Amino acid sequence: MDVTTNGSQQIRLKRATVPEIYxxxxxxxxxxxxxxxxxxxxxxxxxxxxxxxxxxxxxxSCKHQSAxxxxxxxxxxxxxxxxxxxxxxxxxxxxxxxxxxxxKPINARAIRIILELESDLRxxxxxxxxxxENDSVQQISAPRYVRVNxxxxxxEKICNxxxxxxxxxxxxxxxxGYEGFIERVKGLGENEFILDFHLDFLxxxxxxxxxxxHNLLKSGAILLQDKASCLSAVALKSNPFYGKMIDAxxxxxxxxxxxxxxxxxxxxxxxxxxxxxxxxxxRQTISNTHASKVTVQQADFLTLNPSDYQDVKYILVDPSxxxxxxxxxxxxxxxxxxxxxxxxxxxxxxxLQSRLVEHAATFPSVERIVYSTCSIYEEENExxxxxxxxxxxxxxxxEEALPWWPRRGTNRYDNPPDDVIGVKCVRAxxxxxxxxxxxxxxxxxxx
Length: 447
Ligand SMILES: C[S@@+](CC[C@H](N)C(=O)[O-])C[C@H]1O[C@@H](n2cnc3c(N)ncnc32)[C@H](O)[C@@H]1O
Description:
single chain; alpha/beta; eight-stranded mixed β-sheet; five-stranded mixed β-sheet; 16% strand; globular
């Protein structure tokens, strides 16, 4: 029995249980974290009768995961309430702040605790939001990413050479996870570097590190490539990774060269680029990086006749986009392009982007298509995926790209529970991942 006060009256409340939808949602979050299944499967197998609101709640909570973690860790009151299921806390806070805006019944212990902390939580959220605004106003300086070209050398050899030159390789504490890694990168000293948290061929240096004249760069043993840009080639990779590929929009060829490295020069790759000048740069990249099975073709991908490419299994579509995720352009672009101009430009870009992916889907043997942009706008990202699925959804399904990557797309274009987009797509954010802003979607042919 709980006691609460109403003016001078004391009211005795009977203890109630937390509603089933919240308990189920919390269990699903926990199982998803433990990689026991996809969100969709976990929701369906939860036995809950009304999957739509359950899905919406879980998806909303996933969307705000990092804010929720911060709120729970930084709201003083939470330290004094134990034991408290952190997954249930996340669900209840989601409902209170981004969902219905209220919680019932108030005499369930977990709900009462959250309601007692409500004003602290809202205050913590306000300061989190204003901190994020400050961060985005400040010039974000990305670290220098160095990709080891595994066609030429190995990560170990490159690390040894660099330490021989005076660089110091550091590590982040394993226990501190990805967030600890990001903090370690932010604190890199000017002669320090660290192996990337996710990609074993990527080294991370402070932004001041200079490699433009380095012999390793000249010999093609290393490339200067942002981490997010590496992720789309990695998302295309299947296990095994073998078969003909097309890179539909290739120049300057960073992703083509990574595809060649990921397939260990075992697969033929056709690198398409429509712009003649950029084709020259592409050819240079391909030759400098020893990507020996790449053929460069100057053409508009949309004019390629799919029946001439019967055995192509993989297509990467990384088309022209607004480039609004690129860190060096973040501030100036946002200020200079607003309103109607931007809307029109995004409309044009997204229409072309959709056509390119739809065309990729007409290649007779294609099994995997990756679509990526360095845009922060939903119009060029989730909305393109939604549009493309209406055309190719019978033959292709959207698959969860890079399941180990923490940041996912927005769920605004979802039609749950069967048709989800956000959680399946990857997003990278400058402020959180120290990479360019990026988006990736993976389409896989239905069997
Ligand atoms: C974002 S860049 C590609 C970057 C490249 N994937 C890389 O990682 O180095 C887009 C490129 O696609 C080319 N492009 C745009 N539309 C195209 C089309 N329809 N056919 C072929 N190339 C196209 C542009 O000229 C530009 O060079």
